[in-house]
Write a structure and sequence with these properties.
By secondary structure, the protein is mostly helical. α2 crosses α6, α6 runs antiparallel to α10 and α7 runs antiparallel to α9. The protein contains ten helices and no strands.
Length: 239
Amino acid sequence: MAEIQLLAAPPDADRRPPDSVWQRMHALRSAWPDGDGVGVFNGLCLSGAGDIAASYGGGRAATAATREASALRSALAERYLAAVDAVDLGGRAPAAWRPLFHYRRHPGLRPAQFALAGVNAHVGHDLALAVVDLCRARGCEPPALETAFARVGDALTLLVERIGEQAPAGPDAGRGLRVEDPVTHLLGSWNVERALEAAWSSALVLWGLREVPPLAEEFRERMDAGVGLVGRCLLTPYG
């Protein structure tokens, strides 16, 4: 069975042009049926492409910071695509992604739950590894990518804000999820700012342990398992 090399960068990381990453995600959207949970997350990323470009300084001349943010976002997308490829080949995704792939066709789950479970895996697991991927490719230390990380974090925060648009309509539509809906409380328990802080801390730890592979892998496994547990809670069926 196919397995992801979790502490090694995906084969195309930092080499595939950023535009081709989006092309691949567009192709996946066409291949998956409506309502597919992984497809919901994929569509969320594509729907925010314009916001992402703006967050990175789209429309202005590229700067070093803009290029680094785009490179980090590309490395991040490669981590998600590697999980998709592993499952397509009959292997296992990282634990952080497994709940979303396992429950992707569950009728009792709502689009907002699928979307946030995907963001949880993307931020909690993929982002820390993407920082390490890019540091290895660039031959730099994580602090050199701190500005790029902040810009990617801003873009991911915009995606989380979009999730409210997928929530069920109700008396408070336009101001977020309806107060009496149980999904309100479920989704409200996850905070993107705290998740981003944890991702940066995890990247620093992984980088610090890079020359002690057994400890690095143990840390990654624990990080992965913890994010997967949160994802499973976010995918609690309602109705």
